[in-house]
Sequence to fold (326 residues):
Amino acid sequence: MFPTHRPRRLRSNDTLRRMVRETVLTPNDLIYPLFAVPGERFAKEVVSMPGVYQLSIDKIVDEAKEVYDLGIPAIILFGIPAEKDVDATQAWHDCGIVQKATEAVKKAVPNLIVINDTCLCEYTSHGHCGYLGQGDLTGRVLNDPTLELLKKVAIAQARAGADIIAPSGMMDGFVGAIREGLDNAGFQDIPIMSYAAKYASAYYGPFRDAAESTPQYGDRRTYQMDPGNSREAIKEVLLDIEEGADMLMVKPALSYMDIIHRVKEVSDVPVAAYNVSGEYAMVKAAALNGWVDEERVVLETLTSFKRAGADMILTYHAKDAARWIG
Ligand code: PBG
Ligand code: ZN
Fold:
């Protein structure tokens, strides 16, 4: 008995495979993260993220041009301020590092979409994503006072020219609070990309080297989600949509493909996946050892995020991937 059905028929040559391919990655799917630091003509490679740099604003502008020329539509900016304090002043100050970087990029490359990460962790002296109160040692973030600070951050970012506000601190009600803040300040047309399902993940380790944002004490488990939960992700997502989120994010991506898939099924807004620093670091380490074929592993991984349901992918591989898929 020979089989009637022979799926292999459609795999017999590359042209045929291209014809029947369901998911195709393009540069339009990608968002490139950049880390802005004070100074000029400054570039320092992040030890745990080969190929990723802390950059002064002039260099961020050069990168922005290159990214746009590669066909990548957007960057997301993180900032490392010269000074940190309990009120995260540099996060909401008009002269904050991300505000200045945003202004410079929008001036040089007006058509590039500039997303601003809206959180406090890079700007607080203790490294937590929210306000703890003066002299706190418990690391317990106060939810509602944090919302007030986040509104101020978002408004300052919008004023600097940010095209999209991306709150990442996992505070209850943060999308609603920021929406209200933006609307009242006249920024009704600025979309919010919510880090809706963000897990308390060990995969953020290298990012915290890059952003110098490791909590000085305590951890983020009272606000970021428990890796064992998936129904809770749906709850978070539905709340964020109700509060006015225009786009949703799942983070990390690789260990959370099931979440990407479920979020896509229950929502009708674009879904982003954040291919985080630790995921990047693992691929880079293996590639630099010659243990895997970097180009093939990266393109397979990014295509898989899209297959799982991601409409866009934040990834440190964005520039390489855009070059490879040309
Ligand atoms: C913090 C923030 C984190 C990342 C982006 N914004 C994680 C964290 O420190 O908890 C992680 C990105 C990455 O690992 O690439 N709000
Ligand atoms: Zn944070």
